[in-house]
Every structure is written in C-alpha cells, then in structure tokens.
Amino acid sequence: MQVQLETYGNWQVIRVSGQIDSKTVGELRDFIDTELKPSQPVALELTDVPFMSSAGLRTLLTLQRKTQDMGVDLVLIGVADDIADTMKVTGFFEFFTVYETLQAIPGA
Prior knowledge:
Layout: E1 2-8, E2 11-17, H1 25-35, E3 42-48, H2 54-70, E4 74-77, H3 81-90, E5 97-99
Parallel strand pairs: 2-3, 3-4, 4-5
Antiparallel strand pairs: 1-2
Helix pairs in contact: 1-2
C-alpha cells in the first residue's frame, strides 16, 4: 500500500493505492496521525484501492471522527463497488459523503 498527501484546491487529499488490510492499516493510521493539517478539509482518494478489510473500515470511522473533532469536512473519492457494497451492508456508508472524482467535490 502507498499513501501520499496532495492538495486539490483547498482540500488536502490522502491518495491511497493498494489493499487496506490488517497488514497495511497501521501505515495509513500513522500517516493520518502525523500528516493531516487541522484547518483543511480532507478527501480520501480510494480509486486505486481494490480491497478494504474490516480493519480498513474501522480506520475510515476513526478518520471521520478525527476530522469531525477538527471541524473540517471529510469526503471519500472513487470507492470501489465491492467496498461500497460492504460499507452499505455494515451501515458505514451513511457516515460518509462519497464522490466519483475529486472534480465532483462542490467548490473544490
């Protein structure tokens, strides 16, 4: 798994590629804990994530709580159909705003 921080308009974009599972989720958590700027909204770009385990889903909820505590918006970008289906079945999907692309974010 690879994680990069980019900027798109006023958004900080966490671009993830590869699987998010119990072996890789620690790297994503560490990245979120050390790299996020508290004053900018966050877009988690998941277009290149083909699989996410329950550990990854828990990390999404942790990120959602963290951005809520920071007072900034969080959106998910490019969620694969299989991941979206799992999020819907588990009830996680309702906690997130999801867009197909970065360009679809209003005002970005």
